[in-house]
Amino acid sequence: MKNAYAIINLSMQLGKVSEMIQSLASGIQDCEQGNPDVVGAYEDMLLDEVNHTQVLTLELTRLLTEQEVDAGNHADEDGSAFAAGDLTDVKAGEIDKTGIAEAEQEEKE
Questions:
Q1: Alpha carbon distance 35, 106 (integer Å)
Q2: What is the DSSP letter of 88?
Q3: Taking the model in full, what pTM does it have?
């Protein structure tokens, strides 16, 4: 598996950051009642950890999708996993753009 070591490390770090977020949230909850001045510091640290989570998640996603793209899974020449019309076709029972269900439209014809 390509990038396995990096994926493992990012996943472990994501778990540690999640524990820190949980700890900070508990700290905020505890301080809200007794010392509201400290809450601001906790909230700043919490937002920093949320930012770290986002960065780690994006990097982990990049590594995992890079692996999928390298394997050539389900993508055509332009990189799309969808065939032409997959996203625009109206399926039986669904409502089309005019708001008329396909079955109702056939009844009118």
A1: 67
A2: T
A3: 0.58
